[in-house]
Fold this protein.
Amino acid sequence: MRTRLVMAGLVLLLTPADPARSQAIEPVCPSPHDRTVAITFDDLPYTRAGDAGGQELAAVARATNEAILAGLAVRNVPAIGFVVERRVQALGEIGQALLEPWNTGQFELGNHSANHPDSNTLDVDAFRREVIDGEATIRPMVEKAGRTLRFFRFPYNHLGDTDQRREAFERVLGERGYHLAGSTIDTSDYVFDAAYERALARSDTAMVRRIEDAYIDYSRVEIAYYADLNRKVLGCEPPGILLLHANRINAATIDRILGLFRSTGYRFVSLEEAQAHPAYRQPPRFATKFGPMWGYRWARERDLKVNGSKEEEPPAWVTRYSDPDAPL
Ligand SMILES: [Zn+2]
């Protein structure tokens, strides 16, 4: 999270890539294909579990999961949910129960670490610990269902701030049988959700609606922006991977979010199917302390300059309102 806000600065720092490395990158558009997208959710079971308290937490977490899963099911959309073990524990008994439906049918569970640390601050052993401890609830669940735990997503999409650490982290994931989960579309849902939570807490219904509408409008812009970015960088549009969080604004708007894709001709696929595309054959190969979407990473690997400042920000009034200490 809070990744794209620093991209403009990152892009200005781009330096010419090693020519040998650029040449080694294969073309990724073997044949024309239809537009596809994988829907992914981070911070299951509920993004605020373990951070926000209150008696309502369990009920809110349950309602959030039910709404998201129902919205996906009604359109028969596959999805993967990445779990933070600390958030499972924070919910007590219902923590694991909320994950059960994600372990059936077209849904899948993935690992998002035990404590959601910033990997820039971890050595390899500490990172390995986070991966293994992150399996405490989900690995037995997945294996009991006759499935395989296949994907890990880094907190903040921080894949390693040096080549050495990035490669060491990759080896850890390989040891544990994981594929690195990619991300190509960021809608800053956490910014809108912070504003949304504030409006809900104040029972400001008009503001709740206004934030929902602004979130959908911004998502429409971002879906198109990243499709265009990826097309410019790769020469074709690879399967997209939408990064969302298990939060209340997505619970309220999931059908509208899916509608944005459906109305522009996208077909929904699993993360596995999306990442079978050649664009994902290798994990991103440049080190950064930030968490940019894959389009920016693919650009960097190909020595293509992209002006990240052209990417629109969420509306200023939403960002302002999302700060609980800011005056109304
Ligand atoms: Zn996360």
In short: The mean pLDDT is 92. The beta strands are 36-44, 79-83, 107-111, 151-152, 179-180, 185-186, 240-245, 267-268. The first helix runs from residue 7 to 12.
